Amino acid sequence: SQQGEEDPQALSIQEGENATMNCSYKTSINNLQWYRQNSGRGLVHLILIRSNEREKHSGRLRVTLDTSKKSSSLLITASRAADTASYFCATDEGSRLTFGEGTQLTVNP
Amino acid sequence: DAGVIQSPRHEVTEMGQEVTLRCKPISGHNSLFWYRQTMMRGLELLIYFNNNVPIDDSGMPEDRFSAKMPNASFSTLKIQPSEPRDSAVYFCASRRQGLYEQYFGPGTRLTVT
Questions:
Q1: Beta-carbon pairs below 8 A across chains A and B
Q2: Does residue A81 sit in helix, strand or coil?
Q3: Most-buried pick from A12, A55, B15, B103 (CB within 10 A)?
């Protein structure tokens, strides 16, 4: 079964709004990563947060990690139509990644 | 940098036929991963190699699946014989030693009829 579980499964917002996606996991991790997948394409790495970090920023992306609750969130601020994609969290347990089921984000222009 | 290269991009074959998927990782990356993505099961790790050596093949569904990495710049995933339930998108990804992020290829969409 998938280690990471994303919530919500689907999210539809208007351009300019913020989008928040959540991820929960079950076991100890070295780090947690977020990836984006556009329709019909491969996954693209967005951001990594280590197990000893609580928050990380990259451009319009903000990731938080709560290891006590085994959860992470990805915030995309000032969303654009080009952000429309599926977003996956992936837990790194040492060498291998386990991906969640993803959140389908639709940003309407 | 050309990124991870996969071929073919699309493959349609009949049940019982042999299928070979190919991957060229990014130059200088020493780890290579094969994944399968379906609507029902999501993204699953099939096998990964480190320095051309298979490390974990616990995700390989059954003996019909085999993977090889004869050198640092080439890997194959073979299905023989193929079955309709093997229909999926197969991704190859590579990673540089010491780093955590993986770089994915565009995938091969396999349809077995």
A1: 46
A2: helix
A3: B103
